[in-house]
Sequence to fold (298 residues):
Amino acid sequence: MNTPRLLPVLALGLNALVWGLSWWPLRQLHADGLHPLWTTACVFTTAWICITLWRPSAWRGLKQHPELWWLLVASGLTNVGFNWAVTTGDVVRVVLLFYLMPTWSLLLAWWLLGERPNTPALARMGLALLGVVLVLKTPDTPWPVPQSLPDLLALMGGLSFALTNVLLLRLQHTPEPSRMVAMFGGGALMALLCAVLAQASGLLPGLTWDVAAWWPWALVLTLAFLMGNLALQYGAARLSAHTTSMVMLSEVVFASVSSVSLGASVLTWRIALGGGLIVLAALLASQSQRTPLTKDTR
Fold:
């Protein structure tokens, strides 16, 4: 692989590494008393401020293109679902359920973009759904249904991620800085809203103000997410869509190896086989992709 092509691949690998290892600092912050919703709100608010200072004119795009607010909501729910699930659930299981995203994208593109799926696309969807049945099914569950809140959050996060990507295709005429403001703003606002609602309903404690305990982890996460987003934009702009998608799937490897090694996940044969089918479906989908890859908005 020559140097001009290697650098974008390495950039995408960096983005996948950031998200594949993000569960660890999120769990460290959770152990310090900071729920992942509050962590997401703090981290994305900081990133949002940085982007605003860098491109203050980007705010005008939200006024000129009100449909960007839908992008804000979808990308925000992506972060809420993924970060909450990967902090409180089995990491491998959560990441695999989240990577149903290509299947959700197929259905949403059919509904919102009028892109009817062909026979290979339907076959890939069936393959992915079979993988989900294997991941969700355990000896104690007669039907393969989500067993816990992390399962539901992972599925919701993947669906929101797919909706975000479809919306980005519809909104590609809008200024890129405005889309970035909407996506990072969504992570901040939706996490804050969900945290307030969850606290009011008794699902989580209030925000801890032991800043000395958690600010280093929060700063590391903020810098890592900003760096990962910039790396993704650099790599995705220089490689084909299917190459980008395949490199991004390395997030599953990073998350699986790190979480199993550190005892945050248990790799059973059902999860391994079901996960393999989900990843295979995603790889086949990436090979057939013809549109430019959208940004990773978590």
